[in-house]
Amino acid sequence: MSVMEQKTQEQKKARELLGQILTLRGIGWVMAIVAVFFAVWGFTDQHGSAWTVSNWLGDFYANVSSELLSIVITIVVLDGLYNRRQDEGDLRRLKALLSSNEAVVTKIAIAELAAKGWLKDGSLKGADLREANLDSLPTSQHLLDSLPSSQRLLD
Questions:
Q1: Distance from the first to the final alpha carbon of the chain
Q2: Residue 22 and residue 38 in contact, taking contact as beta carbons nearer than 8 Å
Q3: What residues contact residue 114 under an 8 Å CB cut-off, 6+ apart?
Q4: How many angstroms separate the CA atoms of 32 and 26, rounded?
Q5: pLDDT of res. 142
Q6: Mean pLDDT over all residues of the chain?
Q7: What angle do CA 59, 60, 66 make, to 5 degrees?
Q8: Taking the complete model, does pTM exceed 0.70, yes or no?
Q9: Strands (E), the chain
Q10: Which has the closest alpha carbon to 94: 112, 120, 71, 78?
Q11: Angstrom distance (rounded) from CA 51 to CA 68
Q12: What sign has the CA pseudo-torsion 127, 129, 133, 138?
């Protein structure tokens, strides 16, 4: 292997490593390491060699409790946003399945929509049912009744 090829290989490996570090998880770990470093450094600066549990808890208990509370709030908010995005994706997928001309596919879509309560809450607003095969489905009239009259695209 020539020197130029070896240098190119090393640069490629360095870019891959940097790419792995620059992920959200990698940045989080780097920040955690930096935080621990500064915590130990600050504690040592304030207390010298007096590393006792009471000194440690005295310095960090208030900070730890407020940080844990902020983490809990962040997790709850992010989980809510994630679930909302998941529901929006599910609804888009089910609307697409609902407009299928295959009765079995439409029936599955109706069952999933009913299980999530989306047949009755107006979630189907804007659904294009022109191609939907609703023949012989017992819930087809209920489905049509759940749509505003301006959204009923079936003849």
A1: 72
A2: no
A3: 139
A4: 10
A5: 54
A6: 80
A7: 135
A8: no
A9: none
A10: 112
A11: 24
A12: positive
